[in-house]
Design goal:
The complex is a heterodimer.
Chain A (H helix, E strand, L loop, with lengths): L3 H8 L6 H27 L14 H12 L2 H11 L6 H25 L8 H4 L6 H21 L3 H14 L1 H11 L6 H34 L11 H28 L7 H26 L1 H5 L2 H11 L4 H20 L6 H27 L20 H24 L5 H8 L13
Helix pairs in contact in A: 2-17, 3-5, 3-11, 3-16, 4-5, 4-10, 4-11, 5-7, 5-11, 5-17, 7-10, 8-9, 10-11, 11-12, 11-16, 12-15, 14-15, 15-16
Chain B lengths: L1 H38 L8 E5 L5 E5 L26 E6 L8 H9 L10 E5 L8 E5 L8 H5 L5 E3 L5 E3 L9 H5 L6 E2 L6 H4 L23 E2 L5 H5 L5 H5 L5 E5 L4 E3 L4 E3 H7 L15 E4 L26
Parallel strand pairs in B: 3-13
Antiparallel strand pairs in B: 1-2, 3-10, 4-5, 6-7, 8-9, 10-11, 11-12
The chains are: A mainly alpha, B alpha+beta.
């Protein structure tokens, strides 16, 4: 069994290694390139994108949907595992909350990037109309950002106090920083009661908020007449897809952090096994809704539906469609069904596949539908019959992904990725350094 | 202890309430003061003005209290967002007469200063199924009575008027393009870049006052445009540009309340025309309730093929050389 100081030593944040620094520099460079591209887009207008009057939404929107989906991971792990009293969640919830916060912040930024007149953003509040699904988004996204932040922050308080004491001699500046953040946490009865209540409250609230968020996101599409979007199946389809994307992201991040920080004693094979099973459950649910979405319409075979499905099954988008279906859905189900498949490395590879598949899946949901309007595409330049993102769009999209990873990296650098206090309590170890620094 | 706490809470609430009341009163006072200051652009000169209230009573008001409302001084005597009182504009498009002459499109492009790649009025090469006849179908904004685009607009930039028109306030649009995704008729057009009307069309817009009633004057980058049903022409007592430009009398424009439509040459009873020629509306099944009616392409005088001469699958706006 680990002693208190060993535990703290294992779990306190670490400075970046050379590799870590290179990683951060890479992310910052990608972000800067994207910001420059975005500034150019603001100056020249969205003609720098390859969007047109038919493909009127492109990767900005599918990327936004991806971020929204990934942010659901906080709700999945924290709320669902909490409600089902699954104690093994302890070493995973901090990273899940970090991913959720990073994703939802980037979702908010990404949807603004798609706005052609960001200078008029205040109109969304001044002239807001409650009947527009975009207004629902304007209400839910900031709410979810706040909720995700609190979901990360409330459980952090005891750990921040531990860090304050840990750094008192080592780095007074860091100690002061953690001291500010920890709000004079000393772990007495009253503080614990308040904190416990707050954590419970936010953990319960995050589930309905997450469900509302995914639902509104689906309704952005299903409230239109478009073939391929006009589906009552869409909201649960998006919710189950969000579980898949979020868990995939979580497994990737956990694998890397575990390796990089040598946390094998804390995040064990058991955790990977359980997460693998949870991901299979999510994938099977998602598969079920995919059947509803793509197979049932073949039965009545309405003209528009068949045209749309043909485009996916054997037309322009068949490559992507079969990639996201086979590599992003079927193969992960098969691999993760076996115990060997739920070992860390195979699971990491599968989770990467799931995340990439999830990203392209959103692209397959957004773009093909727009290229199938009710009346034929005529009288416009030939290239408007197709859509593939421009350099600007790719640069900006990669930048948003890099920024999400950057937020995660920075939070992992400065916060304990595994809750110290809770881990100690569960292991029956007393943290002595809370009230005074025992070391040195 | 308990007592102490509740006393302090009461004190706190008391203070908070007072602060709140003072803030509200202050706010109201400040508001009143500003109104007064704005109204007092003229000193009271003792003259009073007689005004009629909405319920018909005459009241006397000091002339210093009377202000000009700038919106009501424009040429239109109605609210642009509410529309012309007691009108309901409709259009009838006779598909039997359309030969794809494209004059309507050229005239529309010209009078709405369109510089993009996608015209607001397009003539489609249509065919329902392999065994049925091909025909030419002019398509513009259908000015639906249940407009999907208006429902989804988050900022009320596109709006429905009582006279039937669906218009866009270019100065409010945020460029989210949700309306374009919602429109089943694909008639909405986006200004992806700077429309560049001043340069391409030699337009001078320095003293121009923008109104949603004349779309395209000017167009703005990052906003949506579409057919406006030409209320600026109606104001002048004229027909929309497409109606007057058509050499074949395809377009009839009129007022549903008056039950008349005209293509410039002949004026017809709307209800009788629709009944006699089996008028229909496009994609009626969606429940959008369009203001544009189509007459089926029967008993045509010319071959469909004759229109092929002008048909351009990849162009609807001619670019200046």
């Amino acid at each position: 069994m680990k002693t208190s100081s060993q535990l703290i030593q294992d779990l306190v944040p670490r400075k970046y290694s050379i590799r870590g620094k290179l990683w951060v520099i890479t992310l910052v460079s990608i972000s800067v390139a994207g910001i420059i591209a975005y500034i150019d887009q603001v100056i020249q207008g969205q003609k720098v994108t390859n969007m047109n009057d038919y493909a009127l939404w492109g990767i900005y929107i599918s990327n936004f949907v991806f971020f929204v989906a990934t942010s659901f991971v906080g709700a999945t792990t924290v709320a669902i595992l909490r409600l089902t009293k699954n104690e093994w969640r302890t070493p995973l919830v901090r990273l899940a909350s970090i991913i959720a916060l990073a994703s939802i912040i980037m979702a908010g930024i990404t949807i603004t990037i798609d706005m052609a007149r960001p200078d008029r953003i205040l109109n969304l509040f001044v002239h807001a109309r409650l009947q527009s699904p975009i207004t629902w988004d304007i209400i839910i996204i900031p709410s979810f950002i706040v909720a995700s932040f609190l979901l990360l922050y409330f459980p952090l308080l005891p750990d921040l106090a531990i860090l304050k004491n840990y750094y008192r001699k080592r780095s007074p500046r860091l100690s002061k920083f953690y001291s500010r953040l920890s709000w004079n946490w000393n772990g007495n009865e009253r503080q614990r009661a308040i904190q416990g209540r707050s954590v419970r409250l936010i953990a319960i609230a995050i589930l309905p908020l997450g469900l509302i968020l995914q639902t509104i996101d689906a309704w952005l599409f299903s409230t239109t007449y478009r073939v391929g979007w006009d589906s009552t199946n869409f909201a649960p389809y998006f919710i189950s897809g969000a579980m898949v994307a979020g868990l995939g992201g979580l497994i990737c991040v956990i694998y890397i952090v575990r390796r990089y920080r040598h946390l094998e004693d804390y995040i064990t094979l058991k955790h990977f096994d359980r997460m693998g099973k949870l991901l299979v459950l999510a994938l099977l649910t998602y598969g079920y809704f995919n059947i509803n979405e793509y197979v049932v319409p073949l039965f009545t075979a309405k003209k528009g539906e068949v045209e749309h499905l043909n485009m996916l099954f054997k037309g322009d988008y068949s490559g992507l469609f079969w990639f996201v279906t086979i590599a992003g859905l079927l193969i992960p189900i098969i691999v993760l069904a076996f115990k060997k498949g739920r070992k860390p490395l195979p699971m990491f590879i599968i989770a990467l596949l799931v995340v990439v598949g999830s990203w392209w899946k959103r692209y397959v949901i957004v773009t093909p539908t727009l290229l199938h309007p009710f009346i034929p595409i005529q009288g416009v330049p030939e290239e408007w019959h197709h859509y593939s993102p421009s350099l600007h769009e790719w640069l900006i999209t990669f930048a948003t992904l890099a920024m999400a990873l950057l937020i995660i990296t920075i939070l992992v650098r400065y916060l304990p990725v595994i809750p110290i206090q809770r881990t100690a309590e569960e292991a029956g170890v007393e943290i002595q350094s809370v009230n005074e620094n025992q070391e040195s | 202890m308990k007592k102490d706490q509740s006393a302090s809470r009461r004190r706190f609430l008391n203070k908070g309430l007072r602060a709140g009341i003072i803030t509200v009163l202050g706010g109201i006072g400040l508001g009143k003061l500003t109104t007064k200051l704005i109204a007092a652009n003229k000193h009271s000169d003792g003259n009073s003005v007689e005004l009629m209230t909405t319920d018909g009573r005459l009241i006397a008001v000091d002339s210093s209290e009377v202000m000009d409302m700038p919106d009501h001084l424009s040429a239109t005597s109605y609210n642009v967002r509410e529309g012309m009182p007691n009108r309901k504009f409709v259009m009838v498009v006779d598909l039997a007469k359309c030969k794809n002459a494209l004059n309507c499109q050229q005239s529309c492009n010209k009078h709405h200063y369109i510089t993009g790649d996608n015209a607001w009025l397009k003539i489609y090469d249509m065919q329902e199924s392999r065994d049925t006849a091909q025909y030419w179908m002019p398509m513009m904004c259908q000015h639906c009575d249940k407009p999907a685009c208006v429902t989804v607009c988050p900022v009320d930039a596109t709006f429905k008027r009582r006279d039937g028109l669906v218009l866009i306030d270019n100065e409010r649009c945020i460029g989210c393009r949700f309306c374009m995704a919602a429109c089943p008729y694909s008639t909405r057009v986006f200004n992806w870049g700077d429309p560049g009307q001043e340069v391409t069309l030699n337009m001078d817009l320095t003293d121009h006052h923008y109104s949603p009633e004349h779309a395209g004057l000017p167009s703005q980058m990052g906003t949506v445009d579409k057919c406006d049903f030409c209320p600026h022409q109606v104001d002048k007592g004229e027909l929309p540009h497409c109606v007057t430009a058509c050499p074949n009398g395809v377009f009839y424009y009129g007022d549903k309340y008056e039950d008349t439509v005209t293509n410039g040459d002949e004026t017809l009873r709307l209800s009788k025309l629709l009944e006699d020629k089996s008028g229909y509306r496009f994609l009626e099944g969606l429940g959008t309730e369009p203001s544009v009616y189509y007459l089926p392409p029967v008993d045509r005088l010319v071959d469909f093929e004759d229109g092929m001469e002008y048909y351009k699958p990849y162009e609807s706006v001619e670019k200046p050389e």
